[in-house]
Design a protein that fits this description.
Shape: elongated
Structural class: alpha+beta
Strand content: 5-15%
Helix content: 55-70%
Strand order of the largest sheet: 1-2-4-3
CATH architecture of the largest domain: Orthogonal Bundle
Order of helices and strands: EEHHEEHHH
Distance between the termini: 58 Å
CATH topology of the largest domain: Multidrug-efflux Transporter Regulator, Chain: A, Domain 2
Largest sheet: 4 strands, antiparallel
Length: about 140
């Protein structure tokens, strides 16, 4: 992967362009701008150019992982807000733990539902094969 990362002279921090992140995560630049519009990413700007730092890159990775796991952007944003507000607050951490527990329960239920559907599909497939074999043997 050929990233055109730049080293910011003031902070000695690796930065990324929108096209760097787009290529790395295989998403459109439009998607990245949408996440920015939703307040989930906060790049700095040099004129019209967006400059993303390591924090933005990690957040983008978490947003995409959260989407795959069924988190809404609002849920992801809420987790970011809680984490950013006060990492040492018992109330913030308890709220995060509550959100996580609910999401885990939802995912476990989805997993159970998927397992049940797979069993049903296996049974249907067996019945189809049995019927097909019977039809072929009568012809």
């Amino acid at each position: 992967m050929s990233k055109t990362t730049q080293l910011d002279q003031k902070s000695k921090q690796v930065t990324y362009s929108i096209s760097d992140l787009s290529k790395e995560f295989d998403i459109t630049t439009r998607s990245i701008r949408f996440y920015e519009d939703q307040g989930l990413l906060t790049p700095t700007r040099k004129g019209q150019t967006r400059i993303y730092n390591q924090r933005d890159r990690v957040r983008l990775k978490l947003i995409l992982r959260g989407k795959r796991l069924g988190f809404s952007l609002a849920e992801t944003g809420r987790l970011f807000e809680l984490y950013d507000a006060d990492k040492s607050s018992a109330k913030q951490l308890a709220t995060m733990m509550d959100i996580i527990a609910h999401k885990k329960a939802d995912l476990k239920q989805q997993l159970d539902d998927i397992k049940a559907v797979l069993i049903e599909l296996d049974d249907l497939e067996k019945n189809c094969l049995k019927t097909l074999t019977t039809l072929e043997s009568t012809h």
